[in-house]
Design the sequence.
C-alpha cells in the first residue's frame, strides 16, 4: 500500500521556559526614555552657592561686589549706581572681562524676587560667574531666636 496512517505522536512538546525577549525589549525602551528625559530635569542657573559650613574660598585681589540695598538701590563696591547703569559700571570695573566672578550681596530685607531680577540683569549683560555673599559664622545658634519672647521666661533663675 502506498498510503498509510501512522500514529507516531507528532504532538509538539510543551516548553516550560520563560521567554524573556519581550521583557528585555521593554527594559531597553524604558532605559532610552530615562536617558533622554534625565538631562531635561536639570536646572540651568549658573550660580555658585557655597554650603553654609564650607571653608571660605579665596577671594581675588580686587573682588567686584554688587550690593542690593533694602530700598532696592544698587551699589558697585561702594559707589551707588542706577539699575540701568549696572552693565556700564560693571564693564568699567572689570575692564570688559565677563569671565570675572561677581560677588552679589543683598540685605536681609530684600525679597527673593528682587534679588533674582538683579541676577537676571547680570546674566543678560554676560556675567555668568556669580557668587552669593553671606556672613560667615563660627557656629550656628543652638536654638532659634524668638523675637517676641519675654526674657524673664527664657531661663529660670537658680534657686537660692
Sequence:
Amino acid at each position: 500500500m502506498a498510503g498509510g496512517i501512522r500514529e507516531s505522536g507528532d504532538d509538539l512538546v510543551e516548553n516550560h521556559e520563560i521567554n524573556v525577549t519581550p521583557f528585555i525589549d521593554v527594559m531597553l525602551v524604558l532605559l532610552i526614555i530615562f536617558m533622554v528625559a534625565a538631562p531635561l530635569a536639570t536646572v540651568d542657573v549658573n550660580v555658585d552657592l557655597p554650603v553654609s559650613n564650607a571653608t571660605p574660598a579665596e577671594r581675588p585681589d580686587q573682588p567686584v561686589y554688587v550690593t542690593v540695598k533694602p530700598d532696592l538701590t544698587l551699589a558697585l563696591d561702594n559707589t551707588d549706581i542706577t539699575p540701568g547703569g549696572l552693565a556700564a559700571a560693571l564693564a568699567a570695573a572689570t575692564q570688559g572681562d565677563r569671565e570675572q566672578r561677581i560677588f552679589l550681596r543683598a540685605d536681609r530685607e530684600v525679597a527673593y524676587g528682587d534679588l533674582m531680577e538683579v541676577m537676571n540683569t547680570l546674566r543678560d549683560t554676560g556675567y555668568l560667574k556669580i557668587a552669593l555673599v553671606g556672613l560667615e559664622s563660627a557656629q550656628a545658634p543652638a536654638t532659634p531666636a524668638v523675637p517676641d519672647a519675654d526674657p524673664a521666661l527664657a531661663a529660670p533663675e537658680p534657686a537660692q
